[in-house]
Design a protein that fits this description.
alpha/beta, Spore Coat Polysaccharide Biosynthesis Protein SpsA, Chain A, 7-stranded mixed β-sheet
């Protein structure tokens, strides 16, 4: 028995072909199933199409209300509403081959605690050769970014199967964007990932949902999963990346102020502050974005106050090195970087425990 969850938005033209293909593959094999379309209230004929399909196939339509339009949230709603314990998630655009479902179900029945995935990148798998170079690069970069989180060749796959009992608490899922499979792999209680080769092909009807907004959501989702998987270490790395961007702001002002005639000691004292404000904004939105937010002005003052101590360390080291060490007297930039490195360690501790702490009101 199998519940097939298909998130949809403006996919009415693809649903009849998908329903017929699935039935043609599963009915002769004696696989009892339901086909659950979870629609984000599409402004097309989805309701009428599903009503017609339900006369011949085990089709149900779910249209959740009161939330933002999001394909991943549609999958979560579908999992909650599924009748059977075996869950398959696939796209509505006919890119995933129904012919692979029986093989995937066989793998799941032999390994009930596994996460079974239809993969483009294992032996026997393939993707549409009409892909543009940009789409090919985009897919592989996204895959590389997810590799530290999961052990599989195609973590971007949206064609996967699992037993609901090994998912854990569905309410704990926090998907964002379109890569719900990655979310489930990381947060679920699965022993391993099994990959079944598939021939992936592009949609023929309708438009792709991939756009810049979805790519930004994917990066934000990755950050959230890295924090879940690696905890404080991931926060520290992200804090360091923000600090690196702040370094660019810092050094730009440092040299710009000298260009306008200020002494390098004065320039160093001034350039710190726009960089600190930049870091505050980026950490509030990114590194600690999932933490409860206090009023901006108050938190900015707290961050600047904490950074001031880091700045004293930073500037003190810079001054000492450039004044008393010959190497740094010649190469101010080395002292500049050394001061930032030591000051940043203090700033991270202060940000984590004080400025962005969830324990404070």
């Amino acid at each position: 028995m199998l519940s097939i969850v298909v998130p949809t938005y403006k996919e009415a033209g693809n649903l009849p072909g998908l329903a017929e293909s699935i039935h043609r593959c599963l009915d002769p094999a004696g696989i009892e199933y339901e086909l659950l379309f979870v629609d984000d209230n599409s402004p097309d004929d989805t309701v009428d199409v599903c009503a017609t399909l339900a006369r011949d196939y085990p089709v149900r339509l779910l249209q959740p209300q009161g939330r933002e339009r999001d394909l991943s949230l549609s999958v979560v709603d579908g999992i909650k509403s599924a009748k059977y314990g075996n869950i398959l998630v696939m796209d509505a655009d006919l890119s995933h081959p129904p012919e692979a479902i029986a093989d995937m179900l066989g793998e799941l029945e032999s390994n009930p605690d596994a996460f079974v995935m239809g993969s483009r990148y294992v032996n026997g798998g393939s993707f549409d050769r009409d892909w543009s170079l940009w789409r090919f690069i985009n897919s592989h970069v996204a895959t590389l970014l997810a590799r530290p989180l999961v052990r599989c060749s195609d973590p971007m796959s949206g064609f996967f199967m699992f037993r609901r009992e090994f998912l854990g608490d569905v309410a704990a899922l926090r998907p964002m964007g379109y890569k719900i499979g990655l979310e489930i792999m990381v947060r679920g209680n699965f022993s391993r990932v099994l990959e079944v080769p598939i021939a992936f092909k592009d949609r023929e009807i309708g438009l792709s949902k991939m756009n810049l907004d979805q790519q930004v959501k994917y990066l934000r989702h990755l950050r959230r999963l890295y924090l879940y998987r690696f905890g404080g270490f991931a926060e520290f790395v992200h804090f360091g990346l923000v600090g690196a961007s702040g370094f660019i702001v810092d050094i730009t002002f440092f040299y710009l102020l000298q260009f306008f005639g200020l002494d390098h000691y004065v320039a160093r004292a001034i350039s710190f502050w726009p960089a600190a404000s930049w870091n505050w904004a980026m950490n509030r939105r990114g590194t600690f974005g999932d933490r409860r937010r206090r009023p901006r002005a108050r938190q900015w003052v707290e961050f600047i106050a904490a950074s001031a101590i880091g700045f004293v360390i930073n500037y003190g080291l810079y001054y000492s090195l450039t004044t008393y060490v010959q190497l740094f007297e010649r190469y101010h930039i080395l002292a500049f970087i050394s001061g930032i490195a030591v000051g940043s360690l203090f700033n991270f501790a202060a940000s984590t425990l004080f400025v962005y702490s969830e324990k404070r009101r």
